[in-house]
């Protein structure tokens, strides 16, 4: 069994949970949230801090059976009695049980399925819980760095499975230039071998081939996590699928001063009216007297 040098074994980094939600963006959120808890990057105490009893029970306002399941599991209240409680009363009971240490955050999470968390809690707040602390900016020297690598790799893999991004999105986000700069020669050599193998079969070497040759779990070993987050996860996953608010539209530029109306064009020769002087009129070409226009 391989180890990531931080206590997170590769075989243990993927939770056994499988979402049954219909939408890819919801499945992704459920899987990534559960993965963050599974590897210890996030804790159940963190979850309750983001979603205290009032937030949980308010989200389950129209789900008396789910509220009752949580209360029965955490307080010992009979299920039939718990279903009769309002969400406010249920929140009070759960809060008191936590304060009096009659239950704990882990018990709450165990009774609150990941799919139900996504169904009934605010998705933007769930995403804020997942990414709190800017884990992708963790220094390689810090103990949490290995967990951050595992989590970033899982995000990329899961986004591909749930069809939130394509292989091209990932490669174009990171860019080939950065891959060449970051990957060591032996890793680049494996990519070149794959490209040549395809060429021998007259097949193109695509972004999918590249990520099959060097999958996300390999990329995170060499490509800075901040680069992956800023160029792929933030724009192509979080913003593209509305886990965060859309970027504000740019402010309109100050109004330009009104343009002066165009000056009237000087009359052309086509529009000018010429009056021919009567034959024999006196005066020079430049001077015409009134007698020149006198009636005969």
Strand content: under 5%
Compute the CA-based radius of gyration: 36 Å
Weakly predicted, low-confidence segments: 1-5, 268-290, 292-296
Q: How many E-type strands?
A: 0
N-to-C span: 125 Å
Number of helices: 16
Mean pLDDT: 87
Q: Mind summarizing the main beta sheet? A: none
The amount of helix comes to: 40-55%
Give the total of domains: 2
Computed structural class: mainly alpha
SSE order, one letter for each helix or strand: HHHHHHHHHHHHHHHH
Shape: elongated
What is shown here, in short?
The chain has helices spanning 24-38, 44-50, 53-59, 64-75, 79-83, 87-99, 105-110, 114-120, 123-131, 145-161, 167-174, 176-182, 185-200, 207-213, 216-219, 225-239. The chain has 296 residues and is mainly α.
Describe this structure in words.
With 296 residues, the protein is mainly α. The protein has two domains: 8-40 and 137-246, no CATH class; 52-120. Helices cover 52% and strands 0% of the residues. The protein is built from 16 helices and no strands. The chain has helices spanning 24-38, 44-50, 53-59, 64-75, 79-83, 87-99, 105-110, 114-120, 123-131, 145-161, 167-174, 176-182, 185-200, 207-213, 216-219, 225-239. Helix 1 crosses helix 8, helix 1 (24-38) runs parallel beside helix 9 and helix 3 (53-59) packs antiparallel against helix 6. The longest helix has 17 residues, at 145-161. The relative contact order is 0.10.
């Amino acid at each position: 069994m391989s180890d990531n040098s931080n206590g997170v074994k590769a075989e243990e980094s993927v939770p056994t949970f499988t979402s049954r939600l219909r939408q890819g963006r919801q499945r992704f959120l459920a899987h990534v949230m559960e993965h963050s808890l599974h590897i210890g990057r996030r804790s159940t105490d963190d979850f309750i801090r983001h979603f205290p009893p009032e937030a949980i029970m308010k989200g389950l306002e129209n789900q008396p059976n789910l509220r009752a399941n949580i209360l029965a599991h955490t307080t010992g209240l009979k299920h039939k009695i718990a279903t009769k409680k309002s969400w406010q009363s249920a929140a009070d009971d759960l809060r008191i049980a936590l304060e009096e240490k009659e239950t704990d955050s882990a018990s709450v999470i165990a009774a609150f399925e990941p799919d139900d968390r996504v169904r009934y809690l605010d998705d933007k707040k769930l995403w804020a819980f997942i990414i709190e602390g800017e884990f992708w900016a963790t220094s390689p020297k810090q103990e949490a760095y290995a967990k951050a690598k595992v989590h970033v790799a899982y995000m990329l893999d899961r986004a591909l499975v749930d069809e939130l991004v394509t292989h091209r999105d990932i490669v174009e986000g990171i860019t080939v230039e950065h891959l060449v700069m970051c990957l060591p020669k032996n890793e680049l050599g494996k990519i070149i071998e794959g490209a040549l193998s395809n060429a021998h079969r007259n097949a193109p070497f695509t972004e999918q081939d590249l990520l099959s040759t060097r999958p996300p779990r390999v990329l995170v070993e060499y490509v800075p996590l901040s680069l992956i987050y800023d160029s792929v996860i933030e724009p192509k996953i979080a913003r593209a699928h509305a886990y965060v608010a859309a970027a504000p539209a740019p402010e309109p530029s100050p109004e330009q001063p009104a343009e002066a109306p165009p000056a009237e064009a000087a009359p052309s020769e086509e529009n000018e009216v010429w009056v021919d002087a009567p034959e024999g009129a006196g005066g020079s070409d430049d001077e015409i007297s009134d007698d020149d226009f006198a009636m005969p």
